[in-house]
Amino acid sequence: xxxxxxxxxxxxxxxxxxxxxxxxxxxxxxxxxxxxxxxxxxxxxxxxxxxxxxxxxxxxxxxxxxxxxxxxxxxxxxxxxxxxxxxxxxxxxxxxxxxxxxxxxxxxxxxxxxxxxxxxxxxxxxxxxxxxxxxxxxxxxxxxxxxxxxxxxxxxxxxxxxxxxxxxxxxxxxxxxxxxxxxxxxxxxxxxxxxxxxxxxxxxxxxxxxxxxxxxxxxxxxxxxxxxxxxxxxxxxxxxxxxxxxxxxxxxxxxxxxxxxxxxxxxxxxxxxxxxxxxxxxxxxxxxx
Length: 289
Prior knowledge:
single chain, TIM Barrel, eight-stranded parallel β-sheet, globular
């Protein structure tokens, strides 16, 4: 299996990729965002030094209890970080021969206008949280050559959908991905450029999230890398009784280990240091190193 990003490709099987989160926001749910470009770049550099293979930059929190920001403001926040991204790995040495280096750059947005502007400035992956309600973001990815993350959800972004019920959440995911993969390819996205995200905590109940984590391996039928962005998520807080997101890293690592054993290929996390170590150890223990 090959993941074809904008500037290069990554071949699997290989050690899972660690995607470090850089929030250019002032309302991140985990309290790690910043609107200061220099600080965001320094944070990205730290994550790379800790072993990040991908840096995921976003200018708007996905929190549904916050108003959506204007599109020009999101562009204003993200563009400088994208343009100056090469600064983050100048003089940095890869942690080992398996780290993707220089790291790939992912842009996290749901607005086609933001995707178009930021990918024009640079970027290897469009991490789209819109659930592809139409083909616009797929066409942007196809036009730029960026890889495309297809995330499962229901309804519009930035709106709460915790009322959604599924007779069978895994069947819903299977039908969704089958349809959206076909739609993306009709829009010009190469099959090798598609990444699948089951959308933990997006339009799902606790029981749905736990079942997805338990049966994640079923999504390997599509033959595409599975991105598992479970870092500090609400389902962990509900399971552990921990209200503060920053205190959920142990639960995150547990999900990373479970995800590796079920075939996940990419982990989007806040704590890259701990995740990179866990991934390297589990990869070795399973005999893949």
